[in-house]
Prior knowledge:
This protein is an alpha+beta fold. The chain has seven helices and six strands; from the N terminus they run αβαααβββββααα. It has helices at 2-33, 46-67, 73-82, 84-97, 163-172, 175-181, 188-209, and strands at residues 35-40, 104-113, 116-118, 121-123, 126-135, 142-148. The strands form two sheets. A four-stranded mixed sheet has the order 2-5-1-6. Helix 1 crosses helix 7 (188-209) and helix 2 (46-67) runs antiparallel to helix 4. The model has no long low-confidence stretch (mean pLDDT 81).
Amino acid sequence: MKKYFLLSIVIILFLAISAFSYVNAISTNLADSVFRLHVIANSDSQEDQNLKYKVRDSLIEYMNTLVNSSYSKEDVIKIAKEHLNEFKNIAQNVIKENEFDYPVNVEIGNFAFPSKTYGDISFPSGFYDALKVEIGESKGQNWWCVMFPPLCFVDVTSGVVPEESKENLEDNLGTEEYDIISESNDNTYVNIKFKIIEFFENMKIKLANQ
Length: 210
């Protein structure tokens, strides 16, 4: 009886280690392939939320003029770093034009993100490189998108990611990773993998916040 108990423990440990290794590999590949935009409003008031979207639109429009011919995450991050002051000035100008006087903090780093869906593409929670823009006290709701590959330009009303963006994303990911984040894949086994990744990554985020 004791032998079977120990064998069960060994099997459980093996499965747990295998699952963790799998999640770590997939999460790392996803994080290494995308660069995200994160805009945080001053508060949850309607005015501050509307201001957040105006800042977002201006930043995306400017970023699109800079990286429309970039084909790698590294290129996009390099360009973003070279224009941090411009991003900050654009955000501050939008805020001023809308008769607010909030300060703005703009930085590039590695930040925790919750699970997020862009059209029919879903990214699991985890730590991703991003351009973060904090407006005022930055206590309001967040807004996220993917700057590379360019999913920030998804038409939210249609919920459709352009095929070119999908192809770019698939080119930067392995088949396994792309299948997991694509909602067009209705394979139950793949969906379970997504949930497992979410579970482990949420645990990592909670531990990091303690």
